[in-house]
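User: What would this chain look like folded?
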Amino acid sequence: MSITFEVNGKAVAVDVTPRMTLADCLRHELKLTGTHVGCEHGVCGACTVIVNGDAVRSCLMLAVQAQGASVTTVEGLSQAEGLTPLQTAFKTHHALQCGFCTPGMLTTLHALLSEEPDASEERIRDVISGNLCRCTGYITIIEAAMDARASYQQGRSDKS
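Assistant: Here's the prediction, encoded as structure tokens.
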């Protein structure tokens, strides 16, 4: 099947089998390997991408379901000038170690903070509870998210 959708701001057309997951399409067909595949059951969160503004487990979504959608992967979060404030906060707070969970954490937190720039620590903890990390113990990830909130709050006030 031929599908067209937007990935990281660019229109793409790709031929996929009806059963191909969005994760496999992104990784194997579009060579966007920042989206990691862990459990393949939607439990670990490593494959999280943003589809039409919502954090979605790409291992549970069929590629054909992305027809006409706007998809943002971890590669699409970066800015031409360098790291985003969220990525910088991850670096500052040492919120990554092996890096396997990092793309899913970044996309999950970006989706949250884009919608709720004033998200409380409790809300951040709740939202990332669906993303597994075996290295950091989550404390530094939460600290990074709390630190990055100001940039999302600033972005919202710039649009007002």
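Residues 139-159 form the longest helix (21 residues). If you want, I can go into more detail on any region.
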